[in-house]
């Protein structure tokens, strides 16, 4: 753990992010839980978690998820810094049970204090976190970020008529992260569970029930909780205004020797020939070059890092597997593949009769239209190893557009 996370007699602030809900009000079940739906090109949880991962004072982070959502969580959080700081645990049937599970997981770390935050509040900022932390520094056992209620409040009756106007003086809307001394809130949650109390609406109310004084801190009007489908749409629109295109071009080069055989595979097309390409897989030099080009756009190494030739499971494997893997890595990082271009350098066999099928194979594998795929071929004018029919080379270029927030 970094020293900057430690202040005030070794006070260490751990984080519990509650992400085990199902989010029924935010859309159809087919869309999945709201914390994994995209806003601004990334899942809600990714935005939320990033704010805590990058906050200088955050210590260990516990994310509480639904037992069925592990793959969704892994996809949503790929690429985040310091993954070793993040502990994943499973929640219960209610938010209260999920928070208790998160606190119990955090109690196994060196954290002395905890911030409990809703995954569906992706617009939390470091200024709010700093204000809450300052109050913890001063010795407050519980801190609640709030914003004053500004709307006029009415109490209605069963008859649909207004019974009275409620004074908004001293009324606040509660936000998260709600923050506490870890031992205090863990004890309060455990006592509430043991007593059969499962009706608390937030962690501050459990602290109040347990007799802990709760200090109010200034929250933020931007720190909204995404609840219904319209909230998701507004959040996506807000983030999209602060996204600039990030166009990246990757290049790949590969070469394979020719040896006696019955044909070569290029761009997924087998072409009968009196020679074949030598390689651990099917030796599709074109797809190998294009795989490297895609990996280059997101700094993911090269084909050998992901599919080492020393691994026997790839012996004779179709190179479309490699290209599909690279395309998925690009998409997982928010990239959109817009163009793929392959140039083959060979004296033989003839490529032109197979070009359209090659382009179709690229389009199908990458999930783009055929007009975004190009395959070309040229000879080496009898010069060098290509000119002597000793091998075939390929040069590939991939263009990918990523979304990048302006921060």
From TrEMBL:
It holds the Pfam family IspD. The keyword Lyase applies. A divalent metal cation binds at residues 254, 256, 288. Residues 1-247 are annotated as: 2-C-methyl-D-erythritol 4-phosphate cytidylyltransferase. Its cofactor is a divalent metal cation. Keywords: Isoprene biosynthesis, Lyase, Metal-binding, Multifunctional enzyme, Nucleotidyltransferase, Transferase. 4-CDP-2-C-methyl-D-erythritol 2-phosphate binds at residues 254-256, 280-281, 302-304, 378-381, 385, 388. Bifunctional enzyme that catalyzes the formation of 4-diphosphocytidyl-2-C-methyl-D-erythritol from CTP and 2-C-methyl-D-erythritol 4-phosphate (MEP) (IspD), and catalyzes the conversion of 4-diphosphocytidyl-2-C-methyl-D-erythritol 2-phosphate (CDP-ME2P) to 2-C-methyl-D-erythritol 2,4-cyclodiphosphate (ME-CPP) with a corresponding release of cytidine 5-monophosphate (CMP) (IspF). Belongs to the IspD/TarI cytidylyltransferase family. IspD subfamily. Belongs to the IspF family. This is Bifunctional enzyme IspD/IspF. The gene is ispDF.
